[in-house]
Amino acid sequence: MAINTSKVVVGGLAAGVVLNIIDYVAAGVLLADRMAADANAFQPGLGDSMAAMTGGQIAGMVIMNLLVGMLLVWTYAGFRPRFGPGPKTATYAALVFFALGIVLTSGYMNMGIMSSGLWLTYSAIWLVNLILAAIVGAMLYSEEGTA
Fold first, then answer.
1. d(Cα 21, Cα 133) in Å, to the nearest integer?
2. Is a pLDDT exceeding 90 seen at residue 42?
3. pLDDT tens, 86-123?
4. Is the distance from CB of 17 to CB of 143 less than 8 angstroms?
């Protein structure tokens, strides 16, 4: 059965909103001081420039999370015929993105931009964020011809 593209977009945008909200609360509020301190320890002034993001940078992050949400739901749609619909399959899709994300972001820790404690904390938040976003997106996704 073909992937329902319009439902991928709808579910993906909803997943992207979840990703944006949790990402803002985590990086912009809860961990902002730790992230700035780690970045400033790596290169003085780097954390200060990160804290003062421009409107364009914020828009870029929002768009990126919306695209990740759509790719997450698209992946769920691809997994769905093999694993069945529902939160379990959405979690599988989220785990794929989590595995890719921790591999890619481990460079921040390895370069010294982010301490291992901060990286582990943010990784745990990212895992929860992806699972919640995937479940929300999956709730809005259906195959063509189904309710």
1. 10
2. no
3. 999 999 999 999 999 999 989 888 888 889 999 999 99
4. no
Tens-digit pLDDT profile for residues 56-88: 988 999 999 999 999 999 999 999 999 999 999
**Residue 37 CB neighbour total at 10 angstroms:** 13
Cα–Cα separations (whole angstroms), residue 52 to 36, 82, 90, 123, 131 = 10, 45, 35, 23, 29
Please state, in angstroms and as integers, the Cα–Cα distance from residue 115 to each residue in 31, 47, 50, 118, following that order. Answer: 12, 13, 16, 5
Contact 109, 116 (CB under 8 A): yes
**The pLDDT value given to residue 125:** 96
**Which residue type sits at 118?**
L
Cβ-Cβ contacts under 8 Å for 15 (sequence gap 6 or more) = 68, 69, 70, 72, 73, 133, 134, 136, 137
| 77 C-beta neighbours (distance < 10 Å), count | 26
Calculate ∠ Cα 9-123-75, nearest 5°: 25
pTM of the model: 0.90
- Cα 114 to its chain centre, rounded Å, is 18
